[in-house]
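Today's session is about reading a structure prediction critically. Students often jump straight to the picture, but the first step is always the sequence itself: look for stretches that repeat, for charged clusters, for runs of hydrophobic residues. Only then move on to the predicted structure, which in these notes is written as discrete structure tokens rather than atom positions. Here is the chain we will use throughout the hour.
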Amino acid sequence: MQEGPLNNQEQATSDNNQALGYKDVPQILQMLSPMIRLRLNHYSIHPNDQDDLAQDVLIKLYRAFKHFDFEAEIPLEHYVNRVIKNVKNDYIRHKLYSCERQAMLINEYIVDYNNSKIERPLDKHILALDIGTKLQQSMADLTHLEQTVVLYLLNGYKPNEIAATLDLRIKVVYNAIQRCKMKLKRNFKMKTK
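Below is the predicted structure for this chain, in token form.
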């Protein structure tokens, strides 16, 4: 008799039929385990992930065998092959998604980096100096109280803190702030024309 892959396959089929006769799920899984590992030995699956995927297949089969009809016309091998194929496809889909996500993150970083280069901090500094000099020139047109209120505001004080510090009513401070806004806005418009 000739030894070869066909005889091994016939042997595996007869062993599967024997295990099916007993309906011993752990025995079936033990017999299917080498075939599952062989089918998962593929170039697209990293060797470190092959054992994990084999465990996933065995767990899915174990759960499905509770509802599987062993007497049906669909052979068990066909069902096992479909489960292995689905696990492989899920793995490849996950890897593809991870690569796409990594590419998107890299592109997002590149865009952020290029935008930060375009902002030109020197230009921002020059604009801030220009605005500062315009503000100082406009402050000369304010009353002493309004100048004091603006300086406190620029130092981060809140209107109620300014009123307490200067011993004024809060309404006086709010009125001074409003007058300052109107005067400064008018001065800025005149200087930009």
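Discussion point for the tutorial: The domain at 5-115 is CATH 1.10.1740.10 (Rna Polymerase Sigma Factor; Chain: A).
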